[in-house]
Write a structure and sequence with these properties.
Layout (H helix, E strand, L loop, with lengths): L6 H21 L7 E2 L5 E2 L1 H17 L4 E4 L3 E3 L5 E9 L1 H5 L6 E8 L2 E9 L4 E6 L5 E2 L2 E2 L12 E4 L8 H12 L2 E4 L2 H9 L5 E4 L4 H4 L2 H7 L3 E3 L14 E4 L2 H12 L6
Parallel strand pairs: 3-5, 11-12, 11-13
Antiparallel strand pairs: 1-2, 3-4, 5-6, 6-7, 7-8, 8-9, 9-10, 13-15, 14-15
Helix pairs in contact: 1-2, 4-8, 5-7
């Protein structure tokens, strides 16, 4: 399947990231009202305004494209090309004054993520990925590191409340097998994986706007990113995400999550 997405769309994604960054920087470490959404997750005026600014640009440049955003919902969801937006991934960090949040921008072709941007507006760090091309970090190549054993690996996991029932038991197995575990990195953890500072990320209960942008970036840096069963991620995945810089480590982590003895 050939994607119609190319350099023009990646340049436009940079424009979206710039627009969102200007808004989130203006509100960062300001005294903001914080509202609770129906799922009890927090949201601020910064989330809403940043997404609205990106949507306005998309409607002007690509009026036939679909849009799926965390804060303002979906339009033209059945289009072949759909922009998937998370204006502030890591709102809990944002409202706590911690600069580990990021803006996520993806372009999905027929349900498959083919373009992704992670933008950290405070530190001005930007990861860019485009299917079939090498990923970049602030214009330089982004490359994962080799890690062939869980006992050598640094794992990032989401907030503990993501994992309930069997998911919690599965994560406990993985945490017991790795060298070091950290929590609550949100999208930034995947950026660090693409730079070779993190070996594995395992999360559950994610939405498409949480993970679609990550796929082209991790893959373009030489890593592997799937659901916990090893299936490709897309708009209709179940919210479980497993990423690893080394394909060997991905296979070991997948087996451990499933409760299987990893193959030697």
């Amino acid at each position: 399947m050939t994607s119609p997405v190319g350099a023009e769309h990646l340049a436009f994604a940079d424009r979206l990231a710039d627009a969102a960054a200007a808004i989130s920087r203006r509100y960062f470490r300001q005294r903001l009202a914080v509202d609770d959404k129906a799922d009890a997750s927090p949201v601020t005026i910064a989330d809403r305004e940043a997404e609205a600014a990106m949507r306005t640009l998309i409607e002007s440049q690509y009026p036939k494209h679909g849009i799926l955003g965390e804060e303002h919902g979906a339009v033209r969801a059945g289009a072949d090309l759909v922009w998937v937006l998370d204006p502030i991934d890591g709102t809990k960090s944002f409202i706590s004054g911690v600069p580990l949040f990021g803006t996520l921008i993806a372009l999905v072709h027929e349900g498959r993520p083919v373009l992704g941007v992670i933008d950290q507006p405070v530190s001005r760090e930007r990861w860019r990925g485009l299917e079939g091309q090498a990923s970049t970090f602030n214009g330089a190549a982004a490359t994962v590191r080799a890690c062939d054993a869980l006992a050598k690996a640094t794992l990032f996991a989401g907030a503990t409340e993501q994992y309930v029932g069997e998911d919690a038991a599965a994560l406990a197995r993985l945490k017991a097998a790795v060298k070091l575990t950290r929590h609550n990195g949100d999208c930034y953890a995947y950026g660090l994986l693409a730079l070779g500072f993190v070996d594995c990320v395992a999360e559950a209960s994610l939405k498409p706007y949480d993970y679609c942008a990550l796929v082209p970036i991790v893959e373009g840096a030489g890593g592997v990113i799937t659901d916990w069963q090893g299936r490709p991620l897309g708009l209709h995945s179940d919210g479980h995400v497993l990423a690893a810089g080394d394909p060997r480590l991905h296979a070991l982590a997948q087996a451990t999550l499933a409760g299987r003895k990893p193959a030697r």
